[in-house]
Write a structure and sequence with these properties.
Elements: E1 3-9, E2 24-28, E3 38-42, E4 48-52, E5 56-59, H1 63-72
Antiparallel strand pairs: 1-2, 1-5, 2-3, 3-4
Length: about 80
C-alpha cells in the first residue's frame, strides 16, 4: 500500500470518531475491488478504510510539505 495523495475531510457523518472535519488525511492506493466512488484513507485509528470520495477534497500541499507528512505516515 502506498500513499498517493492527500485530502481534506469535508464530511464525517456517523464517523466522528474515525474522521475529523477539516483535517488532512493520507490517501492510499485502492484495493482492486474498491468501488470507484470511494477512496481509501488512513483514518484516526491509523488503519486504511474506505469512505465516500465526496466527503473529501483532494489537495496539493507542495513538495516540501508532502515530504514532511509522508515521514509521519505509517502504512
Amino acid at each position: 500500500m502506498k500513499v498517493i495523495g492527500f485530502a481534506i475531510c469535508l464530511n464525517n457523518e456517523d464517523y466522528s470518531v474515525s474522521l475529523e472535519l477539516h483535517k488532512v488525511y493520507a490517501v492510499v492506493t485502492p484495493y482492486e475491488n474498491d468501488p470507484a466512488e470511494y477512496i481509501r484513507v488512513i483514518d484516526e485509528s491509523g488503519e486504511d478504510y474506505l469512505f465516500p470520495s465526496n466527503w473529501f477534497e483532494s489537495v496539493s500541499l507542495g513538495t516540501r510539505l508532502e515530504a514532511k507528512l509522508l515521514e509521519s505516515v505509517t502504512v
